[in-house]
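Task: complex structure prediction.
Instruction: return structure tokens for all chains below.
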Amino acid sequence: MGEAFFGYNIFLSMVLFALGSLGVLWQRNALSVFMSVEVMLNAANLALINFAQRFGDTAGGALVLIVIAVAAGEAAVGLAIFIRLYRQRTTIELEKATELQG
Amino acid sequence: MLNIIYFALVLGAIISAGGVVFLSNTVYCALSLVVTMLCLAGIYLVIHAPFVALIQVLVYAGAVMVLFLYVIMLLNPRRAEPIVGTVIERRIWVVILFVAIFLPLTVVWLWRLYPMLEKPAYWDVVPVVSVATRLLTDLLLPFELTSVLLLVAIVGAVLIAKRD
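Output:
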């Protein structure tokens, strides 16, 4: 049943990853940029599961669980950093945080 | 029937991901992202990965997005300032970059992967038991490292966000 969608899943994964990378550069708000990164992570997960099903390898499903756990940890730390950033300069516009710009 | 459901889910995922990328209100972005994740969970169900679909809804659409919405409400980001010339110039370059990345991918997909749309050799429901067995035998080290990573993330998040 599900095998008919193998190629379309790859295409969806491509589209989502490209859209996520577009969003990372397009958005000006740190939170929106972070959400675009989550879209990219989801695209990677979809490709991983798709190929795991294709080749009948259970490691794909296990790896996806690890990826989701890492993404949750990343979200927690990233959002904590944004709270710190907001407290220091009362904005999370990325154009205002330019100390590291050369 | 399954075809209709699947392509509706694909369409929903792409449109809502477009919402995440282009909407300027952060709360709308987050809600759009929830829709993307739910659509992907539906696709996981269609391609016979029910356990991953469950985890996707529980952890991603549930826990992570609640965290996002909580931080959005805590920070209450103001409306973005008006778009100036440098932003427009940057966005034009971003679109060019996007096309430069996406077009080669599409070409490769049509050329090498579209033939694979024909029936793959193997396709079956992956039982939860076999995923768990894999996770607790030869993937044990990544599994345990993930638990350490989550502990570090919890402590780190509290340490970074707390007032000095």
